[in-house]
Amino acid sequence: MPSYFDPRNFDPRNLDPRNLDPRNLDPRSLDPRTWTPFRAAGAGRAWLDQWLTMTTAWVDPVAMLGSGTVTALMPDVVVDALSLGIASRFGGQRIRLTLADRAVSAELRSLSVRRTGAFLQVTVELADLDWDGYPVRSVQIVANRVRLIPGVPTRIDAAQIDVEAALATTTLLDWINQQGTDWRIALDPATGKLLATHQSRGIVAEVTGRITDDLLRIDIGRASWRGVPVPSWLLPSRTVPLSDLPNQTRIVRAVRERGMVYITLDIPQTSGSFDLGQMRDAIVGGTALKFW
Q1: Which of 102, 142, 145, 252 has the fewest Cβ atoms surrounding its Cβ within 10 A?
Q2: Phi then psi for 281, rounded to 5 degrees?
Q3: 3-state secondary structure string, 64-112?
Q4: Rounded distance between C-alpha atoms, residue 223 and residue 228, angstroms
C-alpha cells in the first residue's frame, strides 16, 4: 500500500464516522495561530521531526553540494524552511537575536515571506523589543528585494528596508540625551511638556522637537535662569544631526502622540551572513539566532 495519499485507493466507506463527529474535533486544530503546513497535511510526526529531515543538508552543506544534491540548498527551499522553522518555533514567544554582536530580544508576532519577481519580500512584526537596553513597544520591518545566496556562510542581501517603530517618549529622550548635545531633555509627567536643561548655563526651558531626514530640530519656548525669565531671542532653535546610525540608516520622520513616538526608518541597502548549521541548531534548541 502506498505511503502517501493515493486517490485511486480512496473509498468513502472506509471512513470512520467518529472522525466526522464535530464533538470529537480538537479545538486546537481550528486555531489559525497554531496552523502549520505539516498539520494541514495531516502529518503523523511532530513538525520539528519533519523540519529536521527537511534541513538535513544544513548540517554539512559542502558535503551535500559535493554529492550533487544542489537543489537541497536552493534559495527558495532554504527560505521556506527558515520561515517555517522560525515561525513554528518562536511564533508568539520571545526570540533572541545576535545582530553584528548586538543582543536583541523581542516577541515574534508574525513572519511572512513572498516572492516578488526575482526577489523576496520579508515582513516581520515584533513586540516588546529590547535593543541594547532601549525598550521598543512594537516594530514592523519590511525588507524588499531580498536575495539569499546559500553557502558557507549563507549570504543575505536586501536593497531596501522600511522600519516602523513605536516607543515611549522617555525611551527616545534617553537616546537623544546620549547624542552629545548641551541640553538634557526630560518629560514633565504632570504637564506632558518637554523640559530642557542646559548642562553648563543652568537654563531651563520648555521645548518642542521634531525629527525629519536625520535632523533633530529643537524649538525653545518659555525659558528661565534661576527663576529669571530669559528672552526668547537669546535662545534660537537648535538643529542636531543624527547621522551616526549604522548601515546608513535614515530617520525619515518621528511623530509624537501623547506618551508615544512613532518613528519611520529607511535603510537603503544592507548585507549580512549567517551559518545554516547554527541557525538549524538555534531553531531546534530555541536559542539565539546569529547574524553578522
Answers
A1: 102
A2: -60, -40
A3: HHHCCCHHHHCHHHHHHHHHHHHHHHHCCCEEEEEECCEEEEEEEEEEE
A4: 8
